[in-house]
Write a structure and sequence with these properties.
The protein is α/β, with parallel strands linked by helices. It contains 8 helices and 12 strands. It has a 6-stranded mixed β-sheet, covered by helices on one side. A 6-stranded mixed β-sheet has the order 6-7-8-9-11-10.
Length: 268
C-alpha cells in the first residue's frame, strides 16, 4: 500500500509540474548576424487557443520589450469555429506597430475541411485586422535600404502547398528569402538554393519529453524527424530551418521539458 501512495504522489507531482510548465514562456534568441542593421523577427507558433495556458500578458510584454520589425505566426490556431472569437481577441491583443504575417496549420485546415468559403472568410477577417495572410504568396519587405522576400507556404499536410507559386513573385537582389510554413516536412519539397531561411512549428518541441527521442521515432511520421530535424536550428539543402516549440498545447494543457516558446530572430 505504501508503494501505491508513493506512486500516486509521484503522478500528482508530475502532472502538477507539467500543468505549471504549460504556463511558462521561454524567450529564445537566435542570431544570424551581429550587425546593428538587422531585421528583427518574432515567431509565434501553435497557439491552439483553447489549450493555451500562457498568459497573454507575458507574450505582450515580450513583444513590447523586443519591439520587432515583423511578427510571424506559423499555424495551428483553432480546432473549432467556436474558437474563432477567442483567437481574434488574441490577434487584437498582440497587434502593434510592427507588421504581422501568418499562415495556417493542419488544425486550422481541418476546421474548414469541407468549407472553402469559411476558410476564405477566416482569412479575410484576419486581413481586415491589418494582418497579412500569406498562402503560397510572397511580399517584399523593406527596412531602410535593405529588402527581403517574405514567403508564406501553405501547410504540407493540407496538400494545398504550391512552392513554385509562393516564390514566383519574389524579387531578386534582396538580402534574404525568408519563408514560413507550418509543417517542417515542407523543407524536403523546396528547391535547393531558392530559400535562405525557413520558419516552422508543428512539433511542439515534443511537448511532453520522452527519453531517446521516442516521441519523434514512434509518435511522429514526418520525414524530417528521420533526418534528425526536430526542434530549433537545423540545416538542409543550404537552407537554415528554425522549428519553434509553440506556445499552446494539443490534447492536454501539459508540457514536460519543452516549455512554450517565443523566438526572436535576428536576420542579416
Amino acid at each position: 500500500m505504501t508503494f501505491l501512495y508513493i506512486g500516486l504522489m509521484i503522478i500528482i507531482i508530475a502532472l502538477s509540474y507539467m500543468r505549471y510548465e504549460a504556463t511558462t514562456l521561454k524567450v529564445k534568441k537566435v542570431f544570424f548576424t551581429e550587425s546593428i542593421n538587422h531585421l528583427k523577427v518574432i515567431q509565434l507558433s501553435d497557439i491552439h487557443i483553447s489549450l493555451l495556458r500562457v498568459n497573454i500578458n507575458k507574450i505582450i510584454k515580450v513583444l513590447k520589450k523586443e519591439n520587432p520589425d515583423l511578427v510571424i505566426l506559423t499555424g495551428d490556431y483553432i480546432d473549432s469555429t467556436k474558437q474563432i472569437p477567442a483567437f481574434f481577441n488574441f490577434l487584437n491583443s498582440i497587434n502593434g506597430t510592427y507588421e504581422i504575417f501568418l499562415c495556417f496549420g493542419n488544425h486550422d485546415y481541418r476546421v474548414f475541411k469541407r468549407d472553402e468559403a469559411g476558410l476564405k472568410k477566416f482569412a479575410a477577417d484576419i486581413e481586415n485586422m491589418g494582418i497579412k495572410v500569406l498562402l503560397n504568396d510572397s511580399v517584399l519587405y523593406k527596412k531602410g535600404t535593405q529588402t527581403y522576400n517574405i514567403i508564406g507556404i501553405e501547410d504540407f499536410r493540407s496538400e494545398r502547398y504550391n512552392i513554385k507559386k509562393a516564390i514566383n513573385n519574389c524579387k531578386s537582389n534582396v538580402i534574404a528569402n525568408i519563408a514560413f510554413s507550418h509543417n517542417p516536412d515542407i523543407a524536403l519539397e523546396i528547391p535547393e538554393d531558392s530559400i535562405d531561411f525557413l520558419l516552422c512549428g508543428h512539433f511542439h518541441g515534443g511537448q511532453i519529453w520522452m527519453p531517446f527521442d521516442l516521441e519523434f521515432k514512434f509518435l511522429r511520421h514526418e520525414r524530417v524527424c528521420k533526418l534528425g530535424i526536430k526542434r530549433e536550428l537545423n540545416k538542409l539543402n543550404n537552407m537554415i530551418i528554425y522549428i519553434n516549440s509553440g506556445v499552446g498545447n494539443v490534447l492536454f494543457p501539459l508540457r514536460f521539458v519543452s516549455p512554450p516558446e517565443i523566438t526572436v530572430l535576428y536576420f542579416p
